[in-house]
Amino acid sequence: MRFLIRFAVALLVVAGFASPAAASGGHQRFSALVFSKTAAFRHDSIPAGVAAIKQLGARNHFRVDATEDAAAFTDRNLARYDVVVWLSTTGDVLNDAQQAAFERYIRHGGGYAGIHAASDTEYDWAWYGGLVGAYFRDHPGGVNDQFQTATLHVLGHDTAATKPLPRRWVREEEWYNFRTNPWGTVRVLTEVDERTYDPRGYSEPEGSPGMGRHHPISWCHRYDGGRAFYTAMGHKAEYYNDPLLLAHILGGLKMAAGAASFNC
User: Fold this and answer.
1) Which PANTHER family does the protein's record reference (predicted)?
2) Per-residue confidence (pLDDT) for residue 141, from 0 to 100
3) For residue 205, is the peptide bond before it cis, meaning its omega torsion is within 30 degrees of 0?
4) CATH class of the domain defined by 2-257
5) What is the pLDDT of residues 70-118, one digit of tens each?
6) Residues 197, 10, 157, CA angle at the centre, nearest 5°?
């Protein structure tokens, strides 16, 4: 019964009828820039992710612009946005001047939201590694068998990103393993139960065993003056039709933009 109630709430949140901002006395308007440039592996779900975030904006009264042009990372342009969404970016996507502009943006109170391969980005930019919280290491399986159904544990419902979710959330995903475990430096919002799937990764030479009992998948934290939210979910295009995932992303965007309480 609780799952059905939360699923219904997620539908309402995504549709814009019961957003956390509305529940607090009125829609909170903000602006988001979706950045999806890739310099390594490119996810074919990027167009679906951009379209889904634009729909969330239209239904929940916030502006969404999307670009793959790194030239958008200037002080003047970034100042137009409350949150910058890195959607399945990969590789080195910004030059030194663009990196410096984004660092200034965050230090002046800007918001960052990373989705899926945002953690597979800018490995040589240590500041970004701290912002996203952890770098991608590998995922289970190979090219064609990496998707497994597993159980997520939702750790508290006092944030906009977790309020619509069931306590135990069963879904299919490409479950990322990370180079480091961010527990202790971030607030973990969801963790995947490695007992419910095979977490062994493909990385060389011998692969990785997973991450153990506490395997974070989404989290948030304050970083260098700004707000950061990250979720490793969102590999397949079809996932962006899932009301629960969309409600999770919507809540994370609102938190990172400062339009919902940042209990991180």
Assistant:
1) GALACTOSE-BINDING DOMAIN-LIKE SUPERFAMILY PROTEIN (PTHR40469:SF2), SECRETED GLYCOSYL HYDROLASE (PTHR40469)
2) 84
3) yes
4) alpha beta
5) 999 999 999 999 999 999 999 999 999 999 999 999 999 999 999 999 9
6) 70
- Please tell me the distance from the alpha carbon of residue 164 to that of residue 251, in angstroms, as a whole number: 9
3-state SS of 180-242?
CCCECCEEEEEEECHHHCCCCECCCCCCCCCCCCCCEEEEEEEECCEEEEEECCCCCHHHHHC
Amino acid sitting at position 215: H
Give the strand pairing for 63-67 and 111-115: unpaired
For residues 42 and 65, give the distance between their C-alpha atoms in angstroms, rounded to a whole number.
20
Model pTM? 0.90
Among 132, 113, 110, 112, which residue's Cα sits nearest to residue 121?
Answer: 132
Length of the chain: 264
Q: Per-residue pLDDT tens for 190-244?
A: 999 999 999 999 987 777 899 999 999 999 999 999 999 999 999 999 999 999 9
| DSSP collapsed to 3 states, the chain | CHHHHHHHHHHHHHHCCCCHHHHCCCCCCCEEEEECCECCCCCCCHHHHHHHHHHHHHHHCCEEEEECCHHHCCHHHHCCCCEEEEECCEECCCCHHHHHHHHHHHHCCCEEEEEHHHHCECCCCHHHHHHHCCCEEECECCCCCCEEEEEEEECCCCCCCCCCCCCEEEEEEECCEECCCCECCEEEEEEECHHHCCCCECCCCCCCCCCCCCCEEEEEEEECCEEEEEECCCCCHHHHHCHHHHHHHHHHHHHHHCCCCCCC
Domain spans of the chain?
2-257
Give the pair of three-digit tokens for residue 257: 């933009």
229, 35 Cβ separation under 8 angstroms:
no
Look up tokens 């006092």; give the residue. Answer: 158
Residue type, 197: Y
